[in-house]
Amino acid sequence: MVILIRRKVNFYDEFKGWYNTISKDFNYDAQKDSFARDYLSNMIMKKNNWNLETVLSSFQDDLLKKEFILVYGCGPSLEMTLDFLLRNNVDLNSEKIFNIAADGASRLLKERYIKIEAIFSDLDGITTNEFIYPNFIVVHAHGDNIEKLKRFENEILEFEKIIFTCQVEPNDYVINHGGFTDGDRILFFLRSLLIPFHRIFLIGMDFMNKVGKYSKVGFQKSQKASKSKQKKLRYAAKLIDWLDEYIENEICYVNSQKTSKRYKNLDLVQFLKEFK
What we know:
The chain is α/β, with parallel strands linked by helices. The protein has helices spanning 5-9, 12-26, 30-44, 52-64, 78-87, 105-111, 146-151, 153-158, 182-190, 227-242, 268-273, and strands at residues 68-72, 97-102, 118-121, 136-141, 162-166, 199-203, 210-211, 223-224, 250-254, 264-266. It has an eight-stranded parallel sheet, with helices on both faces. Strands 7-8 form a two-stranded antiparallel ribbon. Strand 1, helix 5 and strand 2 (97-102) form a beta-alpha-beta unit. The longest helix has 16 residues, at 227-242.
């Protein structure tokens, strides 16, 4: 019996306890989240020749060809870490590397001419220009980004290898693979697609009290996060730690301000040695 990839990727039943806790803590409206999922589903029906299983299969096929998975968040350490690697001749466009950007981190990678395999975004930190750069885009729908879904409708309808996610119960078009912020959602998505030799490195994933300038379109520099954002980042860090129960692959933070009892935090020199 063939198991559909979307069934493997979906993690709603396991994650809904976290969702309920987070929704209560932030006073989120589950009905609005469901409306966002349904709004996106209706938009998807307008797409020509799009099939969720086909796109997920293509994503998995590309991932299986790689050894290193680099996940780029929008934390304050992102730009310095990335430029250090480039100055030291790390080939981030290597055929061994699968680059995944969380939202606005994609803008920096594009500026540095780094190939992006996938962008995960709730459309907060990207512009329409980012839709022409990656192989895959994973668009997330929640109650607070419905207007952004409307604004990006043309790009969503025209982009071929696109995947749609939500925070509530999934349907045939929109999956719920778990996670809360763009950064941790990447790891939740990868959870069931990994094979033993994959190694995952988290760059610009700081989860402290500051956000990087690529977090939002229009930011000119890193700045102190709002109290709400700080709380979101703390949840993201907890969720990544919780995923240690489900992911056997090695996961390392790189040059991060975040400390974790579950994963190693490599400094830049240590990380360089991984590619020598």
